[in-house]
Amino acid sequence: MSKPITYSGAGVDLERGAEIVRRIAPLARKTHRPGVLGGIGGFGGLFEAPCGGYREPVLVAGTDGVGTKLRLCGEAGRMEAPGVDLVAMCVNDLLAMGAEPLFFLDYCAANRLDPDRLEPLLKGIVRGCREAGAALLGGETAELPNTYVDDGLELVGFCVGVAEKDRLLDGSGVAEGDLLLGLSSSGPHSNGYSLVRRIVERVGGLENLDGSLIDALCEPTRIYIRSVLPLAQSGRLKAIAHITGGGLPENVERIVPDGLAARIDTGAWAWPGVFDWLGREGPVEREEMLRTFNCGIGLVLAVAPEEAAAAREDLVAAGEEVHEIGRVETGGGVTLG
Fold this sequence. Notes:
About 40% of the residues are buried. The chain has eleven helices and twelve strands.
């Protein structure tokens, strides 16, 4: 007879998965907000329907990942950063719709789950949730032997928010003459990292970079909820573009109605040094930079001219760096000057 085999013998250690749950449960409790029912460990997370304070509440959902930045941060030993990134990429998308994040869930898979390796990542997710005001309601970890290359990880986030129906932002209210305000990014955020990693390889790897440059490449994505959501909920914003994959051209175009054009002055803000380095060391042409990276602008807000000064004042008071980067005119598409 063949010798009996076990699940752990096939490469899946249930105790490692249980240890991760034990570690994340007390951290997740720190993110709880009104509406949370129960805690980590059930078959599903519970959140009371957000009717209080909303006349016509609309649920807004989003999902995203971190991409190959996860691998670069792992090589650099900065695993908390992509946890923040994961939350940021989801909640900033909800913000672009005018929604307040309510709760967040994550999915993490690897050939072998290592609690010590994953703990910083989970702490980053908790940090991001607290910054966004979203409850970490649950998640899933999966040990999938021989599925990923070497020590690769798969990381996915899912977030649900709520918005007042008549305050949803879809760009339909954008009009000729509206101004475009750009909010500074913290660096490349979580986009373009396949190109970033290729450039890092060209210069000989992370070991050939100084610490400040590694810091810049691993800096987490900005979370704009606390500074921008009050403006969105007040009805003073026409639209919000989250500058992710596709850079300024593709993402700003998403908020401009047919028959109108966004004219952006790319000299209206100073590009952070990390983008100068990427462009130089690639080398990467300027047009390619602008359609791959945010180039220093993480969020673009469309506002009526009469609202721009007050909106800028509120944003600066909330800690944002604000740049008037363009305006809406007749025409079509996005023009970068």
